[in-house]
Design goal:
Blueprint: E1 4-13, H1 19-29, E2 33-39, E3 42-49, H2 51-63, E4 70-79, E5 87-89, H3 110-116, H4 160-167, E6 188-192, H5 203-212, E7 217-220, E8 225-230, H6 234-244, E9 253-254, H7 258-262, E10 265-266, H8 269-275, E11 282-287, E12 303-307, H9 312-318, E13 324-328, H10 340-347, E14 353-357, E15 369-373, E16 376-381, E17 391-392, E18 400-402, E19 412-415, E20 418-421, H11 431-448, E21 454-458, H12 464-471, E22 476-480, H13 482-493, E23 500-510, E24 516-524, E25 529-535, E26 538-539, H14 544-548, H15 550-562, H16 572-576, H17 579-591, E27 597-598, H18 601-611, H19 623-630, E28 643-647, E29 650-654, H20 656-667, H21 672-698, E30 702-706, H22 713-725, E31 729-731, H23 743-759
Parallel strand pairs: 2-5, 7-14, 9-12, 11-15, 18-21, 21-22, 23-30, 25-29, 30-31
Antiparallel strand pairs: 1-3, 1-4, 2-3, 6-14, 7-8, 8-13, 9-13, 10-11, 11-12, 15-16, 17-20, 18-19, 19-20, 23-24, 24-25, 26-27, 28-29
One zinc ion binds at residues 108-109, 111-112, 130-131, 133-134.
Length: 760
Amino acid sequence: MNNLRVRAEVQGIVQGVGFRPFVYQAARKRRLSGFVRNTSYGALIEVEGAPGDLDAFFLDLREKLPPLARITSINTTRLKPEGRAEFVIQHSEAQDQRTALISPDVAVCPDCLAEMSDPLDRRYRYPFINCTNCGPRYTIITDVPYDRDKTSMRVFTMCPDCAREYHDPADRRFHAQPNACPVCGPQVELTDRAGRPLEALDPLRAASDLLRAGAIVAVKGLGGFHLAVDAANDQAVRLLRSRKRREEKPLAVMSPDLEAVRKYAFISPAEERILASIQRPVVLLAARNPSPLAPSVAPDNKYVGAFLPYTPLHHLLLKGFLALVLTSGNLSEEPICLDNQEALRRLGGIADYFLWHNRDIYLRADDSVVRAAGRKLRQVRRSRGYVPVPVFLKRPQPQVLAVGGELKNTVCLTKDDRAFLSQHLGDLENPAALDFFELTIGHLRRILDIAPEAIAYDLHPDYLSTKWALEQTGIELIGVQHHHAHIAGAMAEHHLEGPVIGLSCDGTGYGEDGRVWGGELLLCDYAGYERRGRLDYVPLPGGAAAIKEPWRMAVSYLEAAYGDEIEGLDLELLERQDPRRLDLLRQVIRKKVASPETSSLGRLFDGVAALLGLKDRAAFEGQAAMMLEMCCPEGRFEPYPYDLAREEDLWIVKPQPLIRALVLDLDRRASKEEISGRFHRTVIAFLAELARRLAAETRIRTVVLSGGCFQNQVLTEGLTRELVSEGFNVYTQELVPANDGGLSLGQAACAGARLSAAKR
Ligand code: ZN
Ligand code: ZN
Ligand code: FE
């Protein structure tokens, strides 16, 4: 039988994931000759041998890939046989075209953990153990192709033992770029708060002891510094909160294993899979009550954010603990700290000790936060472990940079049929966050080799991302309306063409009429949208102040529903307020001073939460609405009445009857749970009715839900069920967050569509 030679160009995630050794072994097993090498678009393979063996080889490529590898396309061409005997791994070449996909940072694998716990192994208790199947990637890479000299490992010269593993094709560390051992690799160090090293035989054991005694330790992890404290020690957690100036926001906890997590949370099989996945996100779980965790970990919260160790260092540090609080090492809302000296400067006033090391982090990445909705994954914060895996689009589009919104910012770059979202960049409200934003854009452009034709931005003139975009010259700028971008993001993920019925509901977004939108019924595709319905406008008294103080929204809704009759109301909400401030606020609302009008559904949730006495002043965005969701019990509730009006071409939901009926419920001392249940039911009812009305007008049966309000499980699941039961196709986001963290994907898809249309 004549030999064949085939050249295969492989695209996908094939670098830094053990792909070449895998190919090497698959080829050797069948005595094929040829080579494999990394290229800028992925990997190039040439194999030569009997046709049957080649078939078997390519079957392996499809079916037996290493855990982190992912092939998106294989392009094969027939070549003339060369008759050589060997199969070799060749050195990388940097080509002009760089489309190689870089792997995210992934959790340490079981093989490495087994070695680390073996006293006879040369990497016993070595906190930087890794192999081709695990370890840091995205956060240590400066450029592609992915080789050691393009990572922060380049300063560590491998010792002979490590070098032997690295060069041995049969070894599981063959070409593992971060390969290291105690002799040649990074080292940990424990210091006091001033950065002076402490005498400790084993810095990790010493750090654990300090944590057990109640100390706050800043720990350098994979994507930046964490602040750690014993999660069972309430006093220590309180101290951390006060030093970090984070009074109420729930803190995430890391536990050594699933058994420990089960002691304070309920875990479904789906949640168990996500907790143990190689991405190791923080998973929002239903908390047990009573709980062995300190009450101050997640005060007033039915949920607890838990995750499992993802670096060997975490595994060593967590031994013997039920859980450690592990929260981003920053002052509230600034980006997570990266480098040792920076951490010392910024965290010296918070941490008692530093547990750091000398492997640099090039790019910070916060922990990802997700929740499970049945078998679906819902992203709350998409970051470490998921980035930079692209969202695959339905078809290729022009290269675009989308700069996202303001809160929970991410950016997105597109190339071919791939949309690369950045890690969570935080709230773009301070210079440090803006630096991180610019740095990440530059980094992603470099490693993905993208030269955008256009920049897509939000229409809000005050967003720092918008201002940044408008300062760029020599490039096309495309503004995309906030709520349109939300829906387009969800459409892109599900490869929908549109037009669709979009329900875009969140707290705040700049509307094209200059008002604050947030409860919107849109008819849209990628290129454009028509606004076909909304919540009734009410004043947002004091503008941004009303977002921080939900009681203001409650008064605004009461004014809308009662006007002067407010005086006769016997409401705890009104009695709680200082009479002079209340009077002032009512005047502000009536005279519309500094009170833009808003159609925001998020603000309606806030107002109702305040009416129920759940929260008059929010410690963080969305807190009041979250508390309203948390007190909503299971079961069916009677909806409150509402009005639906037709004004010009719009369907307008008027919540005045809802507010009046809710006040009657408060009057008859109905429970918070019942009122919350009825309120959620009402929102589901009027959103479903909006969709139904637009469907009747357009004959469209596809409904897309997006925007921060759909982080609310009761609302999302309830509305989906209702619409599906009426025969609608309903889409919600799974790959990117429904909140503003997913905005950049939608902006990119809209801008791509407009560019394509202009070219045609
Ligand atoms: Zn490993
Ligand atoms: Zn070594
Ligand atoms: Fe939004």
